[in-house]
C-alpha cells in the first residue's frame, strides 16, 4: 500500500511517515499544498493523509479540486481545527475521515487500516481467502493454520493481492503500490516476487492461490473456475 | 450606605410638595372664611364700642354712664349686649345687664387704642371682643358749674376701660368644623395623592425594571449580547440603553477577540504538539538503537523550541492592546532602530543571494512605541527574506509626507495572494518558494497589525508587478525637515 502524507510541519510529517513505514506501508510526503496536490493527482496512492493549513494551496482546496476531478482516492484529514464546522466542512468537501491534532500515531494507523479496508470493500480486520489468512494489524500470514514467514516486500505484495481478492491486478499496479521508488528492480521483479510468494504459500497438497492471467496480471483466488 | 432610590426620592419630594400646597390652600381657605365671618362682627362690635364710649359723662364730679340712665333710648343697644366698664381711677366696674355678675377680661391696645381679641366667656362660650380706653366727656354747662364750684376736674384724669364682647359660639364651631374638614381633606388628599403618585412613578419606572430584568436574566453565554430596546422606551432611557448596548458591543468585540485568540492559539499549538507526540510515539513504538533515540530526542528538542517561540509570540500578541500594557508613544529617531533590526536579516539575505536596498541612514524622527515598532520591523524583515522569490529583491524605503513617516518593505513574490487582507489573518501563511518559510507561524503579520493599531496607526499591503509591499505609516516626530530617502 502506498500512502501520501501532505503536512507542512516537519516533525509531525517525519514522525508520521516513519511510523507508517515501520507499519509496512510505502509512504511519500509533501510539505506544500501545490506539491501535495500534484502528487495526489497521480493514481498510485491508496490513501492520502492531508493537513488543512498548508503553505500555498490549502488542504480544503486540494480536497475540492481532487473531488471535482473525480479522483476517488481516500483522504484522511489531519488538522488542528477542532470545531464542528471545520470537521463538517472537510467531510462535506470530500474527506473520508477527520483526525484532530494532536493524535496518537497508533490511532492514525488504525484509521488508515480501517480506511483501506473500506476502500477495498472489506469488513473484517483479517482477510480470509480459502485457507489463507492475512492479518494487516499484526502483519501476519497463515495458511491452513500454519504461520508463514514473509519479507516486508513479500508481505506488502500478498496484502495488496489479498485486499483485491478476485480481481486481476496488473504488474504495473503491483509495481506502483508495492515496490518502493528507486528500488532498482528489473522489469520482471514483480514476477520474481510472485514466484517467491507462491513457494512460501504452497504446501504439499495445497491448491494454488495466486493465478497468472497471461498478458493481464495476477489474481488471488481460492476457488478458481 | 445605599443611595436613595428614584422611586423613594420622587415620592418624598412629590409628597412634600403636595403637603405644602395643601397646607397653604387650607390655611388660605380657613383665613378667608374666618375673615368673612368675623369681619362684619368686628365692625359691629367696634360700632357698639364707639357708641358706648360716648356715654360716659363727667357730671357733678363723678362718672355717669348714660346707658344706665336712659334705658329707654338705649334699649336696643343695651339689651343682650355684653360690655363692661372699668374706672381705672378707683377700680370700680359696671357691667351690662346681660353679663349679670360675670366679668369680661379687661384689656386694651397700646395707649388705650382699640384691640380686637378672641376671648372665652365665663360660661365657656367663645366670643369676639374689643377693648379700648375711653375718657368721660364734659358738657359746657357742667364745666361752667365746676368752675363756679372751684373744682374743675380734667376728664383725662378719669380713664375708663371698655370691653365690648359678642358671643360667637356658632361661628366658632363652624370654623372649628371647617378646620377639621380642611385637615381631614388635606390628609385624605395627601394619602390619595401618594397612592396615585406611587402608581404613576411605578408605571414610569417600569421600563427601567424591564431593562434591569433583561440584564439580570442574562445567561453567561449572553453577557455580551445587546439589550432589546422596546419601541415605547421613554426618551430619557433610550440614550442610557443605547450607550449600554454600545458598551456591550465593545465587550462583545473584546470577548470575540479573546475567543479568536484562544482558538488561534489552540490551533497553532496543536500542530507542534502533534509533531512532538508523533516523535515520541514513533520512538516508543519499538526498541531502537541509541542513535535513533538521539535523533528522536533532537526532533523533540526542535519541537520544544518551536513551541517556546510560538508561546512567546502568542504572549506578545495577547499583551498588545491590553489596557495593562498600552502603547507609549515617544519621539525618537527610527533610523538606528531600522538598521539594528535589519542587520541580522541582511546577513540572511546575503546568504540566500537576495539583492537588497538598505534602510536610509538619514535621521527619521517619529512618534512611536520603540518596543512595538521593533516587533513590526522584525516581522516585516523576516517575511521579506523568507518569502522573496528566486532572483527576487528586497527594498526598504522610508518617506516623509504631510506630517507622517512611511516605512515600506517590498519584496518579489512568485504568486501574490488575491486577497491581501488575508495576509493579516492569524494562521494564514503565504506560499513559500524557500524552505525556511515553512517554519513561519502565520501570526507575524497579525502581531504587526495589532502592534500598529496599538500605536494608533496601521499597516497596509499592496502589490504591483510581482512585488508585494507592506507600508507602515507613523506620526512624524519633532526634528529637522529632511528630504525623503
TrEMBL record, chain A:
Keyword Hydrolase: no
DNA-binding region: 124-222
SUPFAM superfamilies: CheY-like
InterPro entries hit by this protein: CheY-like_superfamily, OmpR/PhoB-type_DNA-bd, Sig_transdc_resp-reg_receiver, WalR-like, WH-like_DNA-bd_sf
One Pfam family this sequence matches: Response_reg
Residues in coiled coil: none
Protein name: Response regulator transcription factor
Organism: Luteolibacter rhizosphaerae
TrEMBL record, chain B:
PROSITE patterns: HAMP, HIS_KIN
Pfam family, one: HATPase_c
GO molecular-function terms, A-Z: ATP binding
Localization: Membrane
Keyword Nucleotide-binding appears in the UniProt entry: yes
Reactions catalysed according to its record: ATP + protein L-histidine = ADP + protein N-phospho-L-histidine
EC number: 2.7.13.3
Membrane-traversing stretches: 12-33
Domain named HAMP: residues: 202-256
SMART domains: HATPase_c (SM00387), HisKA (SM00388)
Keywords of the record: ATP-binding, Kinase, Membrane, Nucleotide-binding, Phosphoprotein, Transferase, Transmembrane, Transmembrane helix, Two-component regulatory system
The Histidine kinase domain, residue ranges: 264-478
InterPro entries: HAMP_dom, HATPase_C_sf, HATPase_dom, His_kinase_dom, HisK_dim/P_dom, HisK_dim/P_sf, TCS_sensor_his_kinase
PANTHER family membership: SENSOR HISTIDINE KINASE TRCS, SENSOR HISTIDINE KINASE YKOH
Protein name listed in UniProt: histidine kinase
Species assigned in the record: Luteolibacter rhizosphaerae
Top-level taxonomy: Bacteria, Pseudomonadati, Verrucomicrobiota, Verrucomicrobiia, Verrucomicrobiales
Amino acid at each position: 500500500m502506498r500512502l501520501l502524507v501532505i503536512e507542512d510541519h516537519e516533525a509531525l510529517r517525519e514522525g508520521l511517515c516513519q511510523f507508517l513505514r515501520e507499519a509496512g506501508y510505502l509512504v511519500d510526503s509533501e510539505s506544500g499544498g501545490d506539491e501535495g496536490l500534484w502528487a495526489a493527482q497521480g493514481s498510485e496512492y491508496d490513501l492520502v493523509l492531508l493537513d488543512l493549513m498548508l503553505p500555498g494551496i490549502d488542504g480544503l482546496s486540494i480536497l475540492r479540486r481532487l473531488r471535482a476531478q473525480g479522483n476517488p482516492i481516500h483522504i484522511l484529514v489531519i488538522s488542528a481545527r477542532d470545531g464542528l464546522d471545520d470537521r463538517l466542512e472537510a467531510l462535506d468537501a470530500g474527506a473520508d475521515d477527520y483526525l484532530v491534532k494532536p493524535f496518537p500515531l497508533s490511532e492514525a494507523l488504525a484509521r488508515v487500516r480501517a480506511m483501506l479496508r473500506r476502500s477495498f470493500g472489506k469488513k473484517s480486520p483479517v482477510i480470509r481467502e480459502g485457507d489463507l489468512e492475512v492479518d494487516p494489524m499484526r502483519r501476519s500470514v497463515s495458511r491452513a493454520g500454519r504461520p508463514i514467514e514473509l519479507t516486508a516486500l513479500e508481505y506488502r505484495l500478498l496484502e495488496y493481492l489479498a485486499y483485491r481478492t478476485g480481481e486481476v491486478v496488473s504488474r504495473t499496479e503491483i509495481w506502483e503500490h508495492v515496490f518502493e521508488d528507486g528500488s532498482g528492480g528489473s522489469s520482471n521483479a514483480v514476477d520474481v516476487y510472485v514466484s517467491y510468494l507462491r513457494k512460501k504459500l504452497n504446501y504439499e497438497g495445497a491448491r494454488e492461490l495466486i493465478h497468472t492471467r497471461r498478458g493481464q496480471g495476477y489474481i488471488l483466488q481460492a476457488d478458481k473456475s | 450606605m445605599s443611595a436613595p432610590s428614584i422611586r423613594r426620592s420622587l415620592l418624598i419630594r412629590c409628597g412634600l410638595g403636595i403637603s405644602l400646597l395643601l397646607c397653604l390652600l387650607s390655611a388660605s381657605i380657613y383665613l378667608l372664611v374666618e375673615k368673612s365671618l368675623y369681619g362684619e362682627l368686628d365692625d359691629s362690635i367696634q360700632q357698639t364700642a364707639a357708641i358706648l364710649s360716648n356715654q360716659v359723662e363727667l357730671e357733678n364730679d363723678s362718672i355717669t354712664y348714660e346707658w344706665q340712665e336712659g334705658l329707654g333710648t338705649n334699649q336696643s343697644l343695651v339689651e343682650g349686649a355684653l360690655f363692661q366698664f372699668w374706672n381705672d381711677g378707683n377700680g370700680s366696674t359696671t357691667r351690662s345687664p346681660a353679663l349679670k355678675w360675670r366679668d369680661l377680661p379687661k384689656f386694651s391696645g397700646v395707649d388705650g387704642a382699640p384691640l380686637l381679641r378672641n376671648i372665652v366667656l365665663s360660661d365657656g362660650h367663645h366670643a369676639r371682643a374689643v377693648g379700648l380706653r375711653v375718657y368721660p366727656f364734659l358738657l359746657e354747662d357742667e364745666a361752667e358749674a365746676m368752675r363756679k364750684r372751684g373744682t374743675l376736674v380734667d376728664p383725662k384724669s378719669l380713664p375708663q376701660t371698655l370691653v365690648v364682647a359678642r358671643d360667637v359660639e356658632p361661628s366658632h364651631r363652624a370654623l372649628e368644623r371647617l378646620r377639621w374638614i380642611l385637615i381631614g381633606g388635606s390628609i385624605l388628599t395627601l394619602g390619595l395623592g401618594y397612592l396615585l403618585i406611587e402608581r404613576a412613578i411605578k408605571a414610569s419606572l417600569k421600563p427601567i425594571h424591564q431593562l434591569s430584568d433583561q440584564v439580570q436574566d442574562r445567561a453567561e453565554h449572553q453577557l455580551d449580547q445587546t439589550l432589546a430596546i422596546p419601541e415605547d422606551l421613554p426618551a430619557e432611557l433610550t440614550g442610557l440603553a443605547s450607550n449600554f448596548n454600545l458598551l456591550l458591543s465593545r465587550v462583545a468585540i473584546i470577548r470575540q477577540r479573546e475567543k479568536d485568540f484562544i482558538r488561534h492559539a489552540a490551533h497553532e499549538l496543536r500542530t507542534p504538539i502533534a509533531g512532538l507526540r508523533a516523535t515520541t510515539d514513533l520512538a516508543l513504538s519499538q526498541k531502537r538503537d541509541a542513535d535513533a533515540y538521539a535523533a528522536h530526542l533532537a526532533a523533540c528538542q526542535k519541537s520544544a523550541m518551536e513551541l517556546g517561540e510560538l508561546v512567546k509570540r502568542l504572549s506578545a500578541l495577547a499583551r498588545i492592546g491590553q489596557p495593562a500594557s498600552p502603547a507609549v508613544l515617544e519621539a525618537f529617531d527610527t533610523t538606528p532602530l531600522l538598521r539594528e533590526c535589519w542587520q541580522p536579516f541582511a546577513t540572511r539575505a546575503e546568504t540566500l543571494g537576495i539583492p537588497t536596498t538598505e534602510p536610509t541612514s538619514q535621521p527619521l524622527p517619529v512618534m512611536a512605541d520603540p518596543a512595538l515598532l521593533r516587533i513590526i520591523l522584525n516581522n516585516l524583515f523576516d517575511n521579506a527574506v523568507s518569502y522573496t522569490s528566486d532572483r527576487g529583491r528586497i527594498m526598504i524605503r522610508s518617506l516623509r509626507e504631510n506630517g507622517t513617516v512611511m516605512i515600506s518593505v517590498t519584496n518579489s513574490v512568485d504568486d501574490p495572494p488575491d486577497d491581501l487582507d488575508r495576509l493579516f489573518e492569524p494562521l494564514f501563511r503565504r506560499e513559500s518558494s524557500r524552505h525556511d518559510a515553512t517554519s513561519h507561524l502565520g501570526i507575524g503579520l497579525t502581531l504587526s497589525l495589532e502592534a500598529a493599531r496599538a500605536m494608533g496607526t496601521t499597516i497596509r499591503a499592496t502589490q504591483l508587478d510581482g512585488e508585494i509591499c507592506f507600508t507602515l505609516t507613523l506620526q512624524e516626530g519633532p526634528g529637522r525637515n529632511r528630504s525623503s530617502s
